[in-house]
Design a protein that fits this description.
It contains 14 helices and 8 strands. Helix 6 links the parallel strand 5 and strand 6.
């Protein structure tokens, strides 16, 4: 790769609509990608993230999601794909499939066996180096919460940032003290690598650390508000930022219920987007089970309260 391109702004993690037979709804996915990417301030989209239910997609389906999004956007903004694998060889295969399908970069997740068993101190950096050497597209580091056994140390993050392909770090410590330590170290020692918060549940407090943008699932739900918040913070207009954040807080209450993103919260967002007419179905693949009727109604009432159940949204998406 040549010089790093510093990605900044909003990178919504886009979900995948399914048909009744659990196959990807290509037409609905294209429509959603087009709608999300059409908002000012959205400078890239992420497919096959946790919001995009990567864990339930087959390898060929992950590549297909990249192909569809890249074909729909025609290079206007980068398409980044999540890559999740237990071994380096498989991770490289997934990453190469993303490149072949037209993706601009990967969001490289840690092997999830590390969540239970932990990792050797040298393994994470070598893992990133091995994958980076096998592809010619960019890499976003996926930093997991500090309470997990696969949260990278500050020194590991700095080593990863030195890898030529690594252009950004998705910072998700969910521990503000450690978050600040890492942000300060990376800004000082790796200024050419962008820092993107993934804290859906407290965006403003993490954005004001002077970082470059946000890579969040909630950006798929309200890309306009997330982009406006990022712009207000960048312009150092805290009064305006707080006003936007008050609106986002209401919506988070209606959808996420202030939880850290999880399979349930992503399903709740999918249901909310279905009720808004933004996707064709709220269906998720098992082992995720459908929401209960009272949960569906709770989301409906939440959307009514914040004024997001409007027929014109359906027309906007089809345009």
């Amino acid at each position: 790769m040549k010089n790093k391109v510093k990605w900044s702004g909003v990178f919504p993690a886009v979900l995948i609509p399914f048909k009744d037979d659990y196959s990807i709804d290509e037409e609905g996915f294209r429509s959603l990608v087009r709608w999300v990417a059409g908002h000012e301030g959205v400078n890239g989209i992420v497919v096959n993230g946790h919001t995009g239910e990567i864990m339930t997609l087959l390898p060929e389906e992950r590549a297909e999601a990249v192909r569809i999004a890249a074909d729909e956007l025609k290079g206007r903004i980068p398409v980044i794909s999540g890559v999740s694998a237990e071994g380096t060889i498989e991770a490289i295969q997934h990453a190469q499939a993303v490149e072949k399908a037209g993706g601009s970069g990967i969001l490289l997740m840690p092997p999830h066996s590390w969540l239970r068993f932990g990792m050797q101190e040298e393994s994470p950096v070598q893992f990133f180096k091995d994958v980076a050497e096998a592809i010619n597209i960019s890499i976003v580091v996926h930093q997991y919460p500090t309470w997990t056994k696969t949260s990278y140390t500050t020194s590991q993050l700095l080593e990863m940032a030195a890898i030529p392909n690594v252009v950004s770090i998705k910072v998700g410590q969910r521990d503000i003290a450690q978050y600040e330590v890492d942000i300060r170290a990376l800004k000082k020692n790796a200024p050419d690598v962008s820092l993107l918060t993934c804290h859906d549940e407290y965006l403003l407090p993490t954005l004001v650390q002077g970082i470059d943008g946000a890579l969040v699932g909630f950006g798929c739900f309200v890309p306009d508000l997330i982009a406006e918040l990022v712009k207000c913070v960048k312009d150092q207009d805290l009064k305006a930022a707080n006003a936007v954040y008050d609106r986002i807080f209401e919506l988070k209450q209606a959808v996420y219920k202030m939880d850290e993103p999880s399979s349930t919260s992503h399903l709740r967002m999918k249901e909310a987007m279905y009720q808004r007419g933004l996707i064709s179905s709220s269906l998720a693949r098992r082992p995720v089970l459908p929401l209960k009727e009272e949960e569906v109604e709770e989301i409906r009432q939440g959307l009514l309260k914040v004024g997001l159940l409007k027929d014109e949204v359906k027309d906007e998406v089809k345009a």
